[in-house]
Amino acid sequence: MHDTLLEGKMRPSLRRRVIETLKVGAHGNFSWIRSSLELLAGLQMTADFEKQLRNLPSALDGMYDMWYRKARHSSNEAPTANDAAICWLLHAQRPLTRRELLAAVGLTCNRDLIMEELNITGVSACDIWQDRPERGTLAEAEIIDKTFTALLESCQGFIVWDGGKKVCRFSHDSAGAYLAAKPEYASIVAQGYILKACLEVYIANTEWKLPYCEDLEQYACLWWPKHYIHLDEKLSPVLTQQIQDFHTCEQTTRGKASSHLSALGRNRSANLSFDMEGT
User: Fold this and answer.
1) Both 106 and 166 in a single domain?
2) Helix (H, G, I), strand (E, B) or coil at 62
3) Which of 47, 109, 114, 152 is deepest in the core (most CB within 10 A)?
């Protein structure tokens, strides 16, 4: 920090004030510190630096408001990549790996728009979702790393990768609580996105099947009934049609899709019975 802020020419008293301000304002949230340093970086005049230091968001909600304004850069009705990622983390029934989150986002959003939004150098939509290199190769790992890093950057600090647990999570519990209060991430909206993606994993005539749908198959098979139940009778016409396609898909598909649907149907009955018993 000392070497980059004010080109390393910060007087000791100001350095102490920066440290104290960050320590008091963070409340244990290191993402707040990172974002505060980003606001301070690049300011070369001491007067401008001190003014920005005085005007750092004084609470977590202030920092979240700033992140939120940056993340909500699109007025489109269709969900953006960061919309989808946030919805999944808020309402998924368990933590997701980065492969699962990427597959979930790809199934939730318009994939061409994702590429425009994330602006990943040297990677195309086909590289990620259609003609991806063979699983486990260095080329595939590089594409996934680039895409996942760009996705996290688009989420403006709300979502981080937990390297210890190998799952995606919110940067702080309060970040999830802040986002849960936003209408675009409300349960009904998010549950519709998630149910749609789960069903598409298994419907054989998916418009553009992801080559790594298997990354989301386990989640979809086990948890789609939970998302269906949350929606109750509030299904959109698109989801209603997908449910109908799901019920007829077993008669019109062959091989792996058919066997998956049989297993999924049995799992659906078990989950519905479980929920009706209230346990």
Assistant:
1) yes
2) helix
3) 114
**Domain match, 88 and 54 both:** no
- Dihedral (C-alpha) 267, 268, 271, 272: value to the nearest 10 degrees? -150
For residues 86 and 175, membership in a common domain is answered with yes
Give the domain range for residue 44.
5-58
Can you read off the two tokens belonging to residue 145? 């790393």
Is residue 71 domain-resident? no
pLDDT digits 0-9 by tens, 19-43: 888 888 777 777 778 778 877 887 7
Residue 139 lies in a domain: yes
Residue 68 is assigned to a structural domain of this protein: no
Residues 204 and 267 in one domain: yes
Sequence-separated (6 or more) residues with CB below 8 Å from residue 122: 146
First CA to last CA distance, the chain = 52
Torsion 192-194-197-202 (CA) sign? negative
Q: Which of 162, 180, 198 is the last residue of a domain?
A: 180
Q: How does DSSP classify residue 184?
A: G
pTM, to two decimals? 0.71
Tens digit of each residue's pLDDT (9 = 90 or more) over 229-257: 888 667 777 777 777 776 665 445 444 44
Distance CA 41, CA 47 (A): 14
The parts of the chain modelled with pLDDT lower than 50 are: 1-2, 204-208, 250-251, 253-265, 267-279
Count the domains in the chain. 3
Residue 212 near residue 99 (C-beta atoms within 8 A): yes
Report how far residue 86's alpha carbon sits from residue 151's, in angstroms, rounded to the nearest whole number.
11
Give the position of tokens 């792996």. Answer: 256
Residue 138: burial class (beta carbons within 10 Å; 0-12, 13-18, 19+) = exposed
